[in-house]
Structure formats: structure tokens, C-alpha cells
Automatic annotation (TrEMBL):
Keyword set, alphabetical order: Lyase, Metal-binding, Zinc
Biological processes per GO annotation: fructose 1,6-bisphosphate metabolic process; glycolytic process
PROSITE patterns with a match to the protein in the record: ALDOLASE_CLASS_II_2
InterPro entries: Aldolase_TIM, Class_II_FBP_aldolase, FBA_II, Fruc_bis_ald_class-2
Molecular-function annotations in GO: fructose-bisphosphate aldolase activity; zinc ion binding
EC number: 4.1.2.13
Cofactor list: Zn(2+)
Record: residues binding Zn(2+) 2: 105, 135
Protein name: Class II fructose-1,6-bisphosphate aldolase
């Protein structure tokens, strides 16, 4: 059964580990992530951006696919299906379709408007028993057309949003979606510490999990990060696995062109990446 992310994140916060949000793109992605979570007895969050939902034929298709897989694959670990960087309208649609968790990203609005809209979302999601993520500051880079300047979040603004009763808070601390550039300055732990102090134990979310060095991930968790989002790293692993298969000419040998064979190395590569992250985040055996 799909669950809200509230309980798993509060548990993670208390236990000083983080739950991974892995974004999905299609059936192979979803199956790889669900199976890895089950095999490792780990809670998991399936992230779905509005662009990915559109690609997968809409929110209802995604919910139907995930529910079907959970039943057929006997997935018993806690799984949340979470809208990633949702717009106000997108959030309403995802809720209606049966998402168990919502991110409303109002970070591009002036703070008063972000507060007002997030407040409405708190009401709507809590009425349905869903978890809600809000964002302050912005995550740099681009994800599915959502572009962020990468500002460091202001602690007072974070406090104002956290006090609205959101389940979790994403705060920009120098993190970027996609691969980090050579000259990246690293995460601002000063900002994270300041935010953590005033946000009343609300689990914090670290976006842009791809390519953040292990020591920074561990330090971020120790300072209150309880959810870490990973997207690009699974895409790179899938692409590399698929490329190797084709470059070795395996698709031209026997029935190697069968999509079930052609997509298998990429699928296994996603599984390995997800497992590695779950180990690093400390969520294994926390289901
Ligand atoms: P990456 O693609 O950098 O891993 O970021 C994922 C993310 O933050 C999803 O919201």
C-alpha cells in the first residue's frame, strides 16, 4: 500500500539516516527501485516530476502502474509516491489521481506568496492524510524544465514555511540538479545548520543528490537532512549500461534486440545505484 512520507521521514530524522527519493521515468525504473527497496528492507520515495508524469501518460497511469506493481511484486516496505517540484495545478491533479505525497514548489514566488500558497496546500494535503514538501531558496540547475538560480535559503523564511505545518522542507544550500560543475563550491553547512536550528525538527530535504561526495551526504544527514533526492545518477547508470550492451554488439546477436534483453543491463545498473545510495543514506533495514 502506498503511504504518506510523514512517518518514514520522522523515523529517519530520529534515527539519523535519510530516505532516498528516486525519480521514475518508466516501468523499468519503477520496478528496479521497488525491488531494490524490498530486497534491502528499506523505505523508499518514488519521485515523479510533472514532465515525467506527462511522459508516462499522466498521474493516473503512474498511480495505476505503481499500485499494480506493489501488489504483483509483493512489495511490503513503505513506499510513497511523491510529486516532485509540483506547480499548484499539478499538485491538485496529482492529489486527485492518488499520489500519497506532494511537493508544492513555490520557491520562485515572492516569499509572501510562497507562504500563502503553501498554507493552502497544507490544508488540502492534511485533509487527505498526504505528506507535503515545500521549498525555500532554490535548487540550482534544471530538472524537467524547472530551472533554479541556486540561491541559499534564508533561515527566517524557512522557519515561516516550516511553521505552517509542512511535513518536510527543501531548502537551497548550494545544491544543484544534475551533474555538479568542476567549480562547485560545495554545500553550505553554515546555512544548513542555521536552517536546522529554527525549523522545529521538520525533516529537511536535500535535492540534487547526484554526485554529492559521501562525506557531505553524511554531514548533511547529521545536520537534519532526512530525505535525499536522486535522479540524474540513475539516468547516467541506465545510459551507460545500455551503451555498453549496444557497443558490444549484443543487440545484433541472437535475440539480443528483444527489449527485455536490451533494457536489462540498464535496469540492473539502476538497481545497483539505488542500493549504493540506500547504503550511504543508512535506510537499509529501516522499513
Ligand atoms: P539530481 O538529478 O541531481 O539527482 O536531483 C534530483 C532531484 O533533486 C529531484 O528533485
Amino acid at each position: 500500500m502506498l503511504v504518506s512520507a510523514k512517518e518514514m521521514l520522522n523515523k529517519a530524522k530520529a534515527g539519523k539516516y535519510a530516505v532516498g527519493q528516486f525519480n521514475i521515468n518508466n516501468l523499468e525504473w519503477t520496478k528496479a527501485i521497488l525491488l531494490t527497496a524490498q530486497e534491502n528492507n528499506s523505505p523508499v520515495i518514488l519521485g515523479v516530476s510533472e514532465g515525467a508524469a506527462k511522459y508516462m501518460c499522466g498521474f493516473k497511469t503512474v498511480v495505476g502502474m505503481v499500485n499494480g506493481m506493489m501488489e504483483e511484486l509483493n512489495i511490503t516496505v513503505p513506499v510513497a509516491i511523491h510529486l516532485d517540484h509540483g506547480s499548484y495545478e499539478g499538485a491538485l491533479k496529482a492529489m486527485e489521481a492518488g499520489f500519497s505525497s506532494i511537493m508544492f514548489d513555490g520557491s520562485h514566488y515572492p516569499i509572501d506568496e510562497n507562504i500563502a500558497k503553501t498554507k493552502e496546500m497544507v490544508k488540502l494535503t492534511s485533509e487527505k492524510g498526504l505528506s507535503l514538501e515545500a521549498e525555500v531558496g532554490s535548487i540550482g540547475g534544471e530538472e524537467d524544465g524547472v530551472v533554479g538560480a541556486g540561491e541559499i535559503a534564508d533561515a527566517n523564511e524557512c522557519k515561516a514555511i516550516a511553521d505552517l505545518g509542512v511535513t518536510m522542507l527543501a531548502a537551497g544550500i548550494g545544491n544543484i540538479h544534475g551533474v555538479y560543475p568542476e567549480n562547485w563550491q560545495g554545500l553550505s553547512f553554515e546555512a544548513l545548520e542555521a536552517i536546522s536550528k529554527v525549523t522545529n525538527n521538520v525533516p529537511l530535504v536535500l535535492h540534487g543528490g547526484t554526485g554529492i561526495p559521501e562525506d557531505m551526504i553524511k554531514k548533511a544527514i547529521s545536520l537534519g537532512v532526512s530525505k535525499i533526492n536522486v535522479n540524474t545518477e540513475c539516468q547516467l547508470a541506465f545510459a551507460e549500461g545500455t551503451r555498453k550492451y549496444i557497443e558490444a554488439g549484443k543487440d545484433t546477436q541472437g535475440k539480443g534486440f528483444d527489449p527485455r534483453k536490451l533494457l536489462a543491463p540498464g535496469f540492473e545498473a539502476i538497481k545497483a545505484t539505488v542500493k549504493e545510495k540506500m547504503e550511504l543514506f543508512g535506510s537499509i533495514n529501516q522499513a
